Structures are given as structure tokens and as C-alpha cells.
Amino acid sequence: MSDTRKIIIDTDPGQDDAVAILLALGSPEHLDVLGITVVAGNVPLALTERNARIVCELAGKTDVPVYAGCDRPLRQKLVTAEHVHGKTGLDGPQLPDPQMQLSDGHAVDFIIETLRKEDTGTVTLCPLGPLTNIATAFEKAPDIVDRVQQIVLMGGAYFEVGNITPAAEFNIYVDPEAADIVFKSGADIVVLPLDVTHKALTTAPRVQAFRDMGTDVGRMTAEWTDFFERFDKEKYGSAGAPLHDPCVIAYLLQPDLFSGRHINVEIETKSDLTRGMTVADWWRVTDRAPNALFIGDVDADGFFALITERLSRL
Ligand code: BDR
Ligand code: CA
Q1: pLDDT digit string (tens) for 27-79?
Q2: For ligand 1, is residue 200 a contact (CB within 6 Å)?
Q3: For residue 189, which of 160, 158, 148 has the smallest C-alpha distance?
Q4: Ligand 1 mean position to 170 CA, how many Å?
Q5: How far apart are CA 256 and CA 242, in angstroms?
Q6: Are residues 107 and 67 in contact, defined by beta-carbon separation less than 8 angstroms?
Q7: Can you tell me the distance from the alpha carbon of 96 to that of 91, in angstroms, rounded to the nearest whole number?
Q8: Can you tell me the distance from the alpha carbon of 58 to that of 273, in angstroms, rounded to the nearest whole number?
Q9: CA dihedral sign, ordered 155, 159, 161, 162
Q10: Which of 221, 260, 275, 297 is 20 to 30 A off residue 249, Cα-Cα?
Q11: What is the pLDDT of residues 116-174, one digit of tens each?
């Protein structure tokens, strides 16, 4: 198991978060999911923590601990995205009530304790929602920052600019102060922004491949996709919807599917107009030091083939 990478998935499920979790849980020879930490984002915390447990049960992996974390951003009111994900956050298929219990303790403490317990540089954080839990952990225990192997996160945009405001992507917009703390932390950061997720669209044949698995996981994934793609199809006039969060897990499994640039990324926290914008120096026009690998491209067919293969194991 020495090639197995230890990860903590920090998430606000969300249909695309759910597919990301399934992709990780379907890849045990590559990824050891130490825990799932949940944050408020797409829907309030009471729903995101419930949804995380539903997804673990669907995958048959009830031994993965799920911890509830922060129920609101550091300094502002929670903004949610029911208009994309539906009232529950996982609208689409009929879902059972989860039987699996939440783990005791706060997600932030789990992140801190895990990073202190495991060898330095062996735990990767995978944020798929607002960065509130991660920033809170870094503020509470600054010693853990140097112990993080890598942060591979979904958030931000440069070429695609914004999806929740004209200037900002949802995960960063919900908690820009938290994002600012994380991007300034000095940790090794990989960013999967809208620029890349908008190139990974759920076209009809790709969704049919999920359905053709003939399993509950395949059917649910297809029904989730059917539900949330209506929003992006209407908005962008695209053939399907971007499967944002699975890009994070796919990057860990097969980094050669992706390409990007090592650049400086700063978070706008002050302006009313552009709050939550990721000011990415893609063209390297400043002398600000690079602090992130900002991904810009993906082999979309390879990405969907990977998801289909891994989900079909569950
Ligand atoms: C991000 O926002 C959420 O709606 C999705 O789950 C994804 O993490 C995309 O902007
Ligand atoms: Ca998410």
C-alpha cells in the first residue's frame, strides 16, 4: 500500500462532490480516504453532512469517518446554491435516509489531529467547497501548514471568470477570507478552476456510460447529472454540465490528464464588485511569487473514462 496517497476530502455535497467522493472511494489502491470533513456551502451544514453519509453508504464504505465542520463562513453570511443543486443538495434520484452516524468531534479538530499524527508531508487535503474548515484549522494550529503534503482544490477561475457573480466562482465567493488565508499559507497548492471544469462536460454518451454500469452507483450518478446539468445547459447553452469536483480526485489519480501553469493567485476580499475573484497571474505580468499550480486543460475523454471505470467497481 506504499503508493497509496492519504487524503482528507473537505466537501459540501452537492452532486458533483458526490461523484468526487465515489471516485476516491472507488480507488482504494491509490487513495486512502482518512476522513471526510464537511462544510456549509451548496446547502447548509445539516444537509451537507447528511449527504456525505448517504454517499458513503451508497459506496458501501461506512467505515470512512464523516465529521461535521463549520456551519458558516469566517466573516460573512452563508450563500448557498439550491438553484443549482436543488433543495437537498443532492436532488435527482430518490435517496434513503442515512443509517451511518456522524463521527464525534469537529471536522477542524480532525484535520488538525490527523496532520499532527501522520508523518509530515504524507496527507493531502482535497477541498471541494468553501475553504472555511481548512482556513480555520490553519488559524487554530499554524504548525500543521508545513505538515500538509499538498492541497488540491476546486475553486476559482481566470478565463471563465465567475459563475456565482460576474467575477467570482462559488467556492471562493462563499468564503473569500478563508480562501485568502489558504492561498497565503505557503502550502503546496493545486487549483482546479472553472477554466478546466468547463472542459469536462457531461455529454449524453458520457452519462449513458454511467447508466450502462447497471448498478445503483451508476444509476444515481446518471440521475444526479441529469438534474444538475439543466442549470448549466440553460446558462451556457452547453452540451452538458461541468463535473467540477471530480477533477480534484482525477488529478490525484492521473495527473497526466491535466496541464497548467505555476503562477501567483491572490484572492480579492475587499471590492463589492469583484469579491471572491481569484486574481490569477496566468500571463505572468507581475513579479508576485507563484503560490499555486493553476490547471487550465484536461483530457476530457480520459477523465470520463477514469470516472466510469472507478465507479463501476462500487
Ligand atoms: C463549485 O461550486 C459548487 O456548486 C460545486 O459543488 C463546485 O464545488 C463550482 O463552482
Ligand atoms: Ca462542491
Answers
A1: 999 999 999 999 999 999 999 999 999 999 999 999 999 999 999 999 999 99
A2: no
A3: 148
A4: 6
A5: 19
A6: yes
A7: 12
A8: 41
A9: negative
A10: 275
A11: 999 999 999 999 999 999 999 999 999 999 999 999 999 999 999 999 999 999 999 99
Over residues 174-191, the pLDDT tens digits come to: 999 999 999 999 999 999
pLDDT at 237: 82
Question: Percent of the chain scored above 70 by pLDDT?
Answer: 99
- Contact yes or no for 136/259 (Cβ under 8 A): no
| CB of 84 shorter than 6 A to ligand 1 | yes
Peptide bond into 14 cis (omega under 30): yes
Report whether residue 10 contacts ligand 1, using a CB cutoff of 6 Å: no
Cα 306–Cα 309–Cα 314 angle in degrees, nearest 5: 125
Q: Is the pTM of this model over 0.70?
A: yes
Quote the pLDDT of residue 1: 46
CA-to-CA dists, residue 265 to 138, 210, 282, angstroms:
19, 35, 9
Mean pLDDT, the chain, integer? 96
Q: Which pairs from 281-286 meet CB under 8 Å and 24+ separation?
A: 282/158, 282/159
Name the residue type at position 194. Answer: L
More confident residue, 272 or 239: 272
Pairing of strands 189-192, 258-263: unpaired
Strand-strand pairing, 66-68 and 292-298: unpaired
Q: Which residue has the cell 458533483?
A: 16
**Catalytic residue numbers, as ranges:** 244
Closest CA to 200 of 241, 228, 159: 241
Beta-bridged to residue 295, according to DSSP, are: 260
* Nearest ligand 1 atom, CA 16: 6
Atom of ligand 1 nearest to the CA of 164: 10
